[in-house]
Design goal:
- This protein is of the alpha/beta class and 253 residues long.
- It has 2 domains: 1-29 and 79-119 and 173-253, Rossmann fold (3-Layer(aba) Sandwich); 32-76 and 126-163, 2-Layer Sandwich (SIR2/SIRT2 'Small Domain'), CATH 3.30.1600.10.
- Helix content is 32%, strand content 12%.
- The protein is built from 9 helices and 8 strands.
- It has helices at 5-13, 47-50, 53-58, 60-76, 81-90, 106-110, 175-187, 205-212, 239-247; strands at residues 16-21, 95-100, 116-117, 126-127, 162-163, 190-194, 216-220, 233-235.
- The strands form 2 sheets. The protein has a 6-stranded parallel sheet, sandwiched between helices. The protein has a two-stranded antiparallel ribbon with strand order 4-5.
- Helix 7 (175-187) runs parallel beside helix 8.
- It is elongated, with a radius of gyration of 19 Å.
- The chain starts with a helix and ends in a 6-residue tail after the last helix.
- The structure holds 2'-O-acetyl adenosine-5-diphosphoribose (OAD).
- The site of 2'-O-acetyl adenosine-5-diphosphoribose has 27 residues, from helix 2.
């Protein structure tokens, strides 16, 4: 579905745009999404079962090994044309808010200034017990010689294990980030959802809040999602193909 004339006018005149991204925006940089089958060493595991405090308590080396493996993939990857187009969009409209569920840093490396990170970051480990931020080991993580497992470092303050700085299932989202994301969704003209299955709440509410408040919702995702129901424009195209053209339609008025 391409933008028709009425939609082109909406994009050209949009003053406040919210972009809401998920793992699909980084797929073409070579970072596997969450609900794709896990590859290689990890194919026997279910991402949702590794991403919990209970999993870390039960097997910290397995969970730390999985996140360090993901951090290694991210550090070896480059932002793609979708990340770059989103960074460009920021300069084309009066007000812009990027809300991401991703824990990689590819939006930042593409030039986006202040993404609201709803699910934390791979680059901000902290103590599992006392929350003290922990330094990152220098360089790109190596594949552990023991296969999947890698012992997490110890906290410099209390000696407990260090955990990844991401939000796990069952944990609260960072309060300020989710509040600002909901506020932006309530006041935007256009909400662009890119590469998310829209299944994980409360983050998945962001586009619905925008829709209820009267914004046009545009989705970029090659596969069907829960958002199909409310999308005013549904581009079933990979993000790195769709975004550069779509972004060029903003800010023309
Ligand atoms: P998912 O893995 O659930 O969904 C990725 C989406 O990207 C799917 O809908 C794919 O169809 C789509 N996709 C794949 N390739 C794409 C491409 N080239 N261009 C555009 N879309 C593409 O990932 P998220 O929706 O980000 O949370 O998952 C949400 C949250 O669930 C994650 O932040 C993580 C996860 O478990 C936590 O860890 C708390």
């Amino acid at each position: 579905m391409a933008a028709d004339r009425a939609m082109s006018d909406v994009l050209a005149r949009a003053r406040h745009v919210v972009v809401f991204t998920g793992a699909g925006v980084s797929a073409e940089s070579g970072i596997p999404t969450f609900r794709d089958a896990l590859a290689g060493l990890w194919e026997r595991f279910d991402a949702e079962q590794l991403a919990t405090p209970e999993a870390f308590r039960r097997d910290p080396d397995l969970v730390w090994g999985w996140y360090e493996w993901r951090r290694m993939l991210v550090m070896r990857a480059q932002p793609n044309a979708a990340h770059r187009a989103i960074a460009e969009l920021e300069g084309r409209v009066d007000r812009f808010t990027l809300v991401t569920q991703n824990v990689d840093d590819l939006h930042d490396r593409a030039g986006s200034r202040a993404p609201l990170r709803l699910h934390g970051s791979l680059f901000a480990p902290r103590c599992f017990e006392c929350d003290e931020p922990a330094p990152l080991a220098p360089g790109i993580p190596q594949e552990p010689e023991s296969g999947r497992r890698l012992a997490p470092p110890s906290c410099g303050r209390c000696g407990a294990k260090v955990r990844p700085g991401v939000v796990w299932f069952g944990e609260a989202l960072p309060e300020a980030a989710i509040a600002r994301a909901f506020e932006a969704a309530e006041s935007c003209d256009v909400l662009l959802s890119v590469g998310t299955s829209s299944l994980v709440h409360p983050a998945a509410q962001v586009p619905w809040i925008a829709k209820r408040a009267g914004a046009r919702v545009i989705q970029v995702n090659p596969n069907p999602t829960a958002l199909d129901e409310i999308a005013d424009l549904n581009l079933r195209t990979p993000a790195a193909t769709a975004l550069p053209t779509l972004v060029a339609s903003f800010g023309l008025d």
